[in-house]
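wait is this the right file?? whatever heres the structure
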């Protein structure tokens, strides 16, 4: 089995409308699907890159949230429009999309 080199975790937690925000309510399901489709278009990455839904990752007010390991890059405020850049730049080329990286306070 090939070694996983990079793992994208997409928060897919959904909460009821009107309460604390959640990535699910912000469209993370579509983002997850788009990342998986993006990986699907790069067979050279199959077995080396993983895209997995996750529960709440913590920064709910800034979501949708994606975290990428092993480098522990946190993306927040991700939209569907950002996915092609994440796929081509980070998933394929290994370079984080810096404009989406969460800023530490
Ligand atoms: S609901 Fe996504 S980070 Fe909490």
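ok assuming it is, sequence goes like this
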């Amino acid at each position: 089995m090939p070694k996983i080199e990079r793992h994208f975790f997409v928060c897919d937690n959904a909460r009821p409308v009107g309460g604390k925000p959640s990535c699910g309510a912000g469209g993370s399901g579509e983002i997850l699907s788009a990342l998986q489709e993006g990986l699907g278009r790069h067979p050279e990455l199959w077995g080396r890159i993983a895209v997995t839904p996750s529960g709440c990752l913590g920064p709910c007010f800034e979501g949708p949230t994606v975290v990428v390991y092993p480098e522990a890059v946190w993306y927040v405020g991700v939209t569907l429009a950002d996915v092609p850049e994440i796929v081509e730049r980070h998933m394929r080329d290994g370079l984080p999309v810096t404009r989406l990286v969460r800023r530490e306070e």
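The two ends are 40 Å apart (CA to CA). so i think its the right one actually
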